From TrEMBL:
<keyword id="KW-0472">Membrane</keyword>
<dbReference type="InterPro" id="IPR007269">
    <property type="entry name" value="ICMT_MeTrfase"/>
</dbReference>
<protein>
    <submittedName>
        <fullName>15-methylpalmitoyl-4-hydroxy-2-pyrone 4-O-methyltransferase</fullName>
    </submittedName>
</protein>
<dbReference type="GO" id="GO:0004671">
    <property type="term" value="F:protein C-terminal S-isoprenylcysteine carboxyl O-methyltransferase activity"/>
</dbReference>
<keyword id="KW-0812">Transmembrane</keyword>
<feature type="transmembrane region" description="Helical">
    <location>
        <begin position="45"/>
        <end position="62"/>
    </location>
</feature>
<dbReference type="GO" id="GO:0032259">
    <property type="term" value="P:methylation"/>
</dbReference>
<dbReference type="GO" id="GO:0016020">
    <property type="term" value="C:membrane"/>
</dbReference>
<keyword id="KW-0808">Transferase</keyword>
<dbReference type="Pfam" id="PF04140">
    <property type="entry name" value="ICMT"/>
</dbReference>
<dbReference type="InterPro" id="IPR052527">
    <property type="entry name" value="Metal_cation-efflux_comp"/>
</dbReference>
<feature type="transmembrane region" description="Helical">
    <location>
        <begin position="69"/>
        <end position="87"/>
    </location>
</feature>
<feature type="transmembrane region" description="Helical">
    <location>
        <begin position="121"/>
        <end position="147"/>
    </location>
</feature>
<keyword id="KW-0489">Methyltransferase</keyword>
<keyword id="KW-1133">Transmembrane helix</keyword>
Length: 190
């Protein structure tokens, strides 16, 4: 029962995020924004949809139960949710599940974006491991961590290329590390 409730809450959260993303997409495109990576977006949607289906099937078929480490894993899950909300609020109307770039837009460098270039991708990567591990769905955790890494190896370069070409992204992060721009800069000076 707890498993079904947990999954239902997460799926409901994702549905709300899709509504927000669609609203943001309309707003940005009305201002002249351009979409990139449309060819790989359906693959990403498929991966995220298959994640829930696979996890549910694994838990049901193998009769998986709540992990003995559920308290730690649930703490990790709550951390990812706080980070998710922080990242979404920081981007405001620029947040989207698609790669949509508004030409000349100012680069967001507040919230978690002060420390990590792609916090939302980091959060999703953690979730794809933590959520199934809470219910001992090891196959789901491993498989979708690998699939997520594969799609991000396409998505992140596509997003960065679009941002470099259409905004001041490269200038903003010039001389900084690829994923941890401000964290590692402090160590470089010593």
């Amino acid at each position: 029962m707890l498993f079904y409730l947990f999954v239902t809450i997460i799926v409901f959260q994702r549905a709300i995020e899709l509504v927000i993303a669609k609203k943001n997409e309309r707003w940005m495109k009305a201002k002249g924004a351009v979409e990139f990576g449309a060819e790989h977006y359906p693959i990403m949607v498929l991966i995220h949809t298959a994640f829930f289906i696979t996890m549910i099937l694994e838990v049901l078929y193998f009769n998986r139960e709540l992990s003995q480490f559920w308290v730690v894993l649930f703490g990790g899950f709550l951390f990812t949710q706080a980070m998710r909300i922080w990242a979404l609020k920081s981007l405001g109307p620029y947040w989207n599940t698609k790669i949509i770039v508004l030409p000349g837009a100012e680069i967001v460098k507040k919230g978690p974006y002060r420390y990590i270039k792609h916090p939302n991708y980091f959060i999703v990567a953690l979730e794809l491991a933590i959520i199934p591990l809470m219910f001992n769905a090891y196959t789901t955790a491993i498989l979708f961590t690998i699939l997520n890494m594969a799609i991000l190896s396409i998505r992140i370069p596509t997003e960065e290329k679009a941002l470099k070409e259409w905004t001041g992204y490269e200038t903003e992060f010039q001389g900084s590390h690829r994923f941890l721009p401000n964290l590692l800069k402090k160590f470089d000076k010593s």
